[in-house]
Amino acid sequence: MASRRMETKPVITCLKTLLIVYSFVFWITGAVLLAVGLWGKFILGPYISLIAENSTNAPYVLIGTGTTIIVFGLFGCFATCRGSPWMLKLYAMFLSLVFLAELVAGISGFVFRHEIKGTFLRTYNEAVQNYNTRDERSIAVDKVQRSLRCCGVLNYTSWFSSVYYPVNGLPPSCCANSSDCNASDLRNATIAPTKVYQQGCYELVTTFIETNMGIIAGVTFGIAFSQLIGMLLACCLSRFITANQYEMV
């Protein structure tokens, strides 16, 4: 019995070390999700409003998920240091739930990416049609056009049917060169097209989605399947500790 315990002790030590390292990485993942959620809430709010038809809870979901992962990451470290089998099993159970949630989220995002594009086309077109320079979506439209160097939905002609165009012409955020683009130019149907960006914003955004969706899905699946490593480590460590305690009785 004594020799058997001596054999399992290094294994338990090795598993504890690996699980603590994994829990630390898992904790960092939670911190990143929390940071992304806060960034989405306070910085990307206007942009998200253009993608979602109604108000979205996505930032709050990320904040909640990140906070939960941080708490359970610390719990995982505590359970590992304590060497408590029931705590380790609870930690493995939580990792399995995170794995399933991330797997479903990744598959859903990849499968419904075309619906996301369709929703963006509809909501962005509505934002352009009802543009007034003041509300949240109008401010988001200006930010998108300036940052992506684009104008309108498909091109600058998308603005012709907006409520803003008859009185003001094209918005200043469409100007390709702000130092050579004034209000009178933007109201002039002949001059304005030569002063603004020629490419529409919808094409740029959807191209970005198509280009990066595979990468995003791959990263999501990679993180999800990494939970399996944590589950395996937690279960193995719990089993070895239980067996070692049984042999000591």
From TrEMBL:
This protein's UniProt keywords: Disulfide bond, Glycoprotein, Membrane, Transmembrane, Transmembrane helix
Pfam families: Tetraspanin
Disulfide bonds: C151-C174
SUPFAM superfamilies in alphabetical order: Tetraspanin
InterPro entries per UniProt: Tetraspanin/Peripherin (IPR018499), Tetraspanin_animals (IPR000301), Tetraspanin_CS (IPR018503), Tetraspanin_EC2_sf (IPR008952), TSN6/7_LEL (IPR048232)
PROSITE patterns registered for this protein in UniProt: TM4_1
Top-rank taxon, per record: Eukaryota
GO CC entries: plasma membrane
Transmembrane helix found in the keyword field: yes
Main location: membrane
Cellular location(s): Membrane
CDD domains the record matches: TM4SF2_6_like_LEL
Membrane-spanning ranges: 20-40, 60-78, 90-112, 215-241
Membrane topology: Multi-pass membrane protein
Record's keyword annotation contains Transmembrane helix: yes
Role noted for this protein: May be involved in cell proliferation and cell motility.
Family under the similarity heading: Belongs to the tetraspanin (TM4SF) family.
PANTHER family: TETRASPANIN (PTHR19282), TETRASPANIN-7 (PTHR19282:SF257)
Name of this protein: Tetraspanin
Organism: Phoxinus phoxinus
Classification of source organism: Eukaryota, Metazoa, Chordata, Craniata, Vertebrata
